[in-house]
Amino acid sequence: MTHTEHLHGGDAVVSAFTAAGADHIFCSSGSEWAPVWESLARHHRDGLPCPGYLDLTHETVAVGMATGYGLITRRPQGVLLHAAPGLLQGSMAVHGALLAGVPMVVASSESTTYGDGPGQDPGGQWYRNLSIVGGPHQVAQPFTKWSNEAAGIHTLPTMITRAAELARRAPAGPAYLNIPLEVLLEEWDGREAKPIAAPGSTHSSPEEADAAAQLIREARNPVIVTETAGREAGGFEALVAFAEAWQIPVVEPDSAVCGNFPRTHPLHAGSDIGPWMDEADLILLVNCRAPFYPPSRRPSEAKIVVIDEVPQRPHVVYQVLFADRYLEGDVANTLRQLTKRAEDLDAAVLTARRSAQEQRHAEEQAAVAAAEAGAEGAEGIDPVLVAATLRRLLDGRDGIVVDETITHSRVVRRHLRTDVSDAYFYVQGGLGQGIAVALGVKLAARERPVVLTIGDGAFAYNPVIPSYDASKAYQLPLLIVVFNNRVYKSMNLNHRRFYPDGAAAETGEWLGTDLHRLPRLASFAEPFGMHTETVDTTEALAPALERALKAVAEGTTAVVDVLVTR
């Protein structure tokens, strides 16, 4: 540091994120972050350790990439947005991170002096355009886990530390910190933040585990239902061992956030909890925030055991679990404790249970094969064929699929049949985040091919140009496969469901759904020098996807727009 340089709030931010273990700071640029940029430039010049910095041109891209990165690493990163407007622009993606359980520290700014105080002039834009009554931390409260303001330079580093620690603890999610520009510009005394420690673990007592194991032992027809067991460190493997030890089928409902159990496993029981509502005598909800719909739909006979570190999620507005018993604490540990208790089981009961599940599994395998055979011979490209072709091409490549389809999401999950952890993620919250989340996943797993499956409607919501810019600037090649049916089909289905004999059905005037007017979706990638294909025949599908995967392996994002029949 030269004699004319002084430490300031920007240095405090960089120091705190470094101590918090952030690998990256994802920034959608705003004028308040000049102190952070100056600090990073100094760190780079002097060879000092600091997080990597990503300069991104849209708030959804910044937050979405932090989400994707956190899905893989499970550690909080830094996200810098611009004032209240930038926070509002990025809020949908922040809410998605909350629903996905991804830790991050999001920060933006305000002015406290509006140019009437001592020190440097913050600029008239804060007085005219950027400020919001109550401060941006008030705006962030509904869609973050914790929201506060760093009111002074002396508390700034420890406030970032606290935000990172809160974000990482269960239920993990984004924390927000409002850092006024005047604080960023203020001189800092250089006291460094202490590196944060990993969260400690809590466990259910042996007595609680014994009681739950006894319920499982007495059950003749139990079932496991899970949404996010795979998000826990070791959760995927622990759930497999638990299910196998007790021979219990596993249902992953449509609300599953990630891959939690191998879809190729004989104990995988599909995505529909419906058949179990009247048949099961014990339902084990493992990290399952919303198992029943409508929420009042109570199982007929089953006792319900909830296994979750924080079963009642504070950010879920309405949550009904019908629990008879809770096992709270580290989920993977709880599953391992229950696995150890799978002793002296009734062989006849296990045989009957295994036989029934084998029949269900065989029927599902046959149904999948029949659907794929039908898609092979269909006129035009059926969505089933797209998912099945992707599965075959990704076999043995250790790929990761990020899914932002709506009407095709069941098809994607059913026919991709992922069988390892961290191989599938479904984008949470509002549409328009998929490309950014996939980029963040790729940043965290550069050696693995990352595929985004997305509908044409969802694609239109994405900030496509800023996303492609980030892909090219940071060498993050993706395969983007668009399931393009030229319609907002989910909206059309709801219209037909609510008004089956209405005026629209009578006249054929279906509003709010037509996407035929959009140009070729792959063409937006052409100015970036990316590989693009538009496919409308079954014969062309596999070769196009093969060429696209080859382009990705060579370092170029590829967009394949597939014109599907439904």
UniProtKB/TrEMBL annotation:
GO terms for biological process: isoleucine biosynthetic process; L-valine biosynthetic process. Residues 210-338 form the Thiamine pyrophosphate enzyme central domain. GO terms for molecular function: acetolactate synthase activity; flavin adenine dinucleotide binding; magnesium ion binding; thiamine pyrophosphate binding. The keyword Magnesium does not apply. The keyword Cytoplasm does not apply. Residues 409-562 form the Thiamine pyrophosphate enzyme TPP-binding domain. GO terms for cellular component: acetolactate synthase complex. It comes from the Bacteria. Belongs to the TPP enzyme family. This is Thiamine pyrophosphate-binding protein. The lineage of its organism: Bacteria, Bacillati, Actinomycetota, Actinomycetes, Kitasatosporales.
